[in-house]
Amino acid sequence: MLTPNRDTVLCMSLAGRPGTFGVRFHNYLYGQLQLNFYYKACTTKDLPAAIGGLRALGVRGCGVSMPFKEDCIALVDEMDASAAAIESVNTIVNTDGHLKAYNTDYMAIRQLLDQHAVDPQTRFALRGSGGMAKAVASALRDAGFAHGLIIARNQGAGQKLAQACGYRWASELGDERPQMLVNVTPIGMSGGPQVDDLAFERGAIETADRVFDVVALPAQTPMIKLAQHLGKPVITGLEVIAIQALEQFVLYTGVRPTDAQIQAATEYARG
Q1: What does DSSP assign to residue 183?
Q2: How many structural domains is the chain composed of?
Q3: C-alpha separations of 104 from 23, 108, 266 in Å
Q4: Which phi and psi angles does 127 have, rounded to 5°?
Q5: Counting Cβ atoms within 10 Å, is residue 237 exposed (0-12), middle (13-18) or buried (19+)?
Q6: For the residues 75-99, what does the mean pLDDT come to?
Q7: Which residues are known to be catalytic?
Q8: Would 110 be classed as within a structural domain?
Q9: What is the reported pLDDT for 1?
Q10: Residue 3 located in a structural domain
Q11: Per the confidence metrics, is the pTM higher than 0.85?
Q12: Do residues 49 and 150 both lie within one domain?
């Protein structure tokens, strides 16, 4: 990494529970590519002041995580189509004081569905109704997945998301046994109250053809571990976070690293 100086370009992230993946991923690549950038993870109890600070201090880019993905919409100047279509933001780019919002989570999900060759005819259930759930459900819809069930205890948010994407809603999975299970909640997340819990009941995981968990820390959540033990194909949150971080990196710097550099940065960021 270059020694920071007065010309160093600052990038950052805002999250309710800041992690280290983005810090390590971005700073590793800045060093490898000799870019005079520095990345810092932060949290805030005053989101308007924090977003105003991006503009006032010339912070180039900001990653946005739970619980700020929707609340920051009113605080930016422009919404890219990737964010406007799903009303959820995970990236802000500052160009001379003009703040434009993107959603690289959506981009990552679309890429992963293609990379894993998931058949759009697959019947799926998605647990969650927040900002990330919007990105995942919208990516599934736009990739041609027509047979979906949104599982959310928050009936208002769950029904709204289901209606927006043309899916069904239920408060619990019940007797449904979809081919793909998608977790877009904090269940299984390190440091959370449900770190040891399965996002779906064991019977549903046993009968599913594929499991997709967006939780990145740990990379092997209880649901992913069980699915792998059962020999099921999986898509992990580590894959999601690596791609979305890469797309953020490109937006901030205008530079796209090589595949080898991306792989090295991902391994380094895992610690």
Answers
A1: E
A2: 2
A3: 17, 6, 16
A4: -95, 120
A5: buried
A6: 95
A7: 69
A8: no
A9: 62
A10: no
A11: yes
A12: no
Orientation angle between helical segments 104-115 and 131-142, nearest 10 degrees: 40
Both 243 and 227 in a single domain?
no
Q: What is the DSSP letter of 74?
A: G
The two three-digit tokens of residue 271, written as one number: 């610690």
Residue 218 lies in a domain: yes
Q: What is the dihedral of CA 184, 188, 190, 196, to 10 degrees?
A: 170
Identity at 88, one-letter amino acid code: S
Q: What pLDDT, on a 0 to 100 scale, did the predictor assign at position 3?
A: 83
- Contacts with 210 (C-beta within 8 Å, 6 or more apart), sequence order: 116, 118, 122, 179, 180, 181, 227, 232, 233, 234, 235
Question: Contact, 235 vs 220, CB < 8 A?
Answer: no
User: Residue 190: pLDDT band by 50, 70, 90 thresholds?
Assistant: confident
**Residue carrying structure tokens 């995981």:** 205
Assess whether 133 and 72 both reside in one domain.
no
CB atoms inside a 10 Å sphere around CB 1: 13
The token duo for 84 is: 């406007």
At 47, list the tokens. 């989101």
The span from the CA of 226 to the CA of 25, in Å, is: 28
Query: Domain residues for 18?
Result: 9-103+239-269
